[in-house]
From TrEMBL:
Any one GO BP annotation for this protein: glycine decarboxylation via glycine cleavage system
HAMAP family reported in the protein's UniProt record: GcvT
Ranges of residues in domain Aminomethyltransferase C-terminal: 294-375
Species for this entry: Cellulomonas humilata
Listed GO CC annotations: cytosol; glycine cleavage complex
Gene3D superfamilies documented for this protein: Aminomethyltransferase beta-barrel domains, Aminomethyltransferase fragment, Probable tRNA modification gtpase trme, domain 1
Entry's EC annotation: 2.1.2.10
Catalytic activity: N(6)-[(R)-S(8)-aminomethyldihydrolipoyl]-L-lysyl-[protein] + (6S)-5,6,7,8-tetrahydrofolate = N(6)-[(R)-dihydrolipoyl]-L-lysyl-[protein] + (6R)-5,10-methylene-5,6,7,8-tetrahydrofolate + NH4(+)
Protein name, entry field: Aminomethyltransferase
Assembly description: The glycine cleavage system is composed of four proteins: P, T, L and H.
Family: Belongs to the GcvT family.
GO molecular function, one term: transaminase activity
Length: 379
């Protein structure tokens, strides 16, 4: 049976279409995918992200443990900073992509994808030997709500009961966090969204989540805030060129394959300047020095039919054109007005401007390779 979000009753009351996702019952949409997508680009959307996994890592060796368990250099993360990173297997395959927040000197919050929450917990348990560290699953008692869109800051400041606790949300940097309170209770607020827009994520006790959700809806109505489901979240992150685990990332993919080799920190060293070991280091070092077998690219649809996950990318629209890649994510772009997709293709056809095709249910649809992301928000 699927787990219910702390906000399940709110979604039902709003008439959301619910779907099973990674073992949870979550809202797919409330009204229409395009309306919710457009609201986030032009005003703001309210998302329930309580299905994400929250893992606490605490203790004197917390930073050193994360340096070993993950590919990033987390011990150097500043207080209330955030960092995108990955956990990899020994062969370099991506187990999950993560965001890590540093609460205190010895306390970190690791946010995992819902589908990999238990896998990451198990991997952490296997990697704690020799470290004075405690790993705690905080997901059952934690809710996560996001307000995304150009009017997110105005909505945050208009929300009754939400106080900035001595910090200024306006000056909060991207990939950073700050403490706030809601009805006097602590809330961790981050600026690390997944839509390509400005916005904030609110970690709080699960029991407080319905009240905060309702307060956001009330405060946000004059600003055009609407609740938004998983479908809009997916089309938004696709336009922003952000990877999704299970599509662009999986156990057969290294960070380098996905164009994210920058998150692999081979320059991690100990106090004596010696390279720090971490899980997957040897494989990732070798992969970083080799020529890629495939490259993740953006594809701009030149026709009207959208490519979808798993569709073959072929060399041309000719019936006998050979396959040279596979679509990982694809959909019509509400913002741009034409189909977009991400795909792994052979390096020789990965240059922007290269014209290819996608086999869309037996019909060869023309596409053009473009640089990612497809969309950048106005500054």
């Amino acid at each position: 049976m699927d787990t219910l979000s702390p906000l399940h009753a709110e979604h039902v009351a709003l008439g959301a279409a619910l779907t099973s996702f990674a073992g949870w019952q979550m809202p797919l949409r409330y009204t229409s995918d395009i309306a919710e997508h457009t609201a986030v680009r032009t005003a703001a959307g309210l998302f329930d992200l309580s299905h994400m996994g929250e893992i606490g890592v605490t203790g004197p060796d917390a930073g050193r443990f994360l340096d070993y368990a993950l590919v990033g250099n987390l011990s150097t993360l500043r207080l209330l900073g955030a960092r995108y990173t990955m956990i990899c297997a020994e062969d370099g395959g991506v187990v999950d992509d993560l965001i890590v927040y540093r609460d205190t000197e010895d306390t970190f919050l690791v946010v995992a994808n819902a589908s990999n929450h238990e896998t990451v917990l198990a991997a952490f348990a296997e990697r704690t030997a020799g470290f004075d560290v405690t790993v705690e699953d905080r997901s059952p008692q934690t809710a996560l709500i996001a307000v995304q869109g150009p009017r997110a800051l105005e909505i945050l400041r208009a929300t009754a009961g939400l106080a900035e606790a001595g910090h200024d949300a306006e000056t909060l940097k991207y990939y950073a966090a700050m403490p706030m309170t809601f009805q006097g209770e602590p809330v961790l607020v981050a600026r690390t969204g997944y839509t390509g827009e400005d916005g904030f994520e609110f970690f709080l006790a699960a029991g407080l989540a319905p009240a905060l959700w309702q307060a956001f809806l009330a405060a946000g109505e004059p600003f055009g805030l609407v609740p938004a489901g998983l479908s809009a979240r997916d089309s938004l992150r696709l336009e922003a060129g952000m990877p999704l685990y299970g599509n662009e990332l999986d156990r057969t993919t290294t960070p380098h394959d996905a164009g994210l080799g920058r998150v692999v920190k081979l320059d991690k060293v100990d106090a004596d300047g010696n390279p720090l070991p971490f899980v997957g280091r040897a494989a990732l070092e070798a992969r970083g020095q080799s020529e890629p077998a495939r490259v993740l690219v953006g594809l701009e649809g030149l026709g009207r039919r959208a490519a979808r996950h798993g569709y073959p990318v072929v060399l041309s629209t000719a019936d006998d054109a050979p396959a040279i890649g596979t679509v990982t994510s694809g959909a019509p772009s509400p913002t741009l007005g034409h189909p977009v997709a991400m795909a792994y293709v052979s390096p020789e056809v990965s240059a922007p401007g290269t014209e290819l095709a996608v086999d869309v249910r037996g019909r060869r649809e023309p596409v053009r390779v473009v640089a990612l992301p497809f969309y950048r928000r106005p500054r």
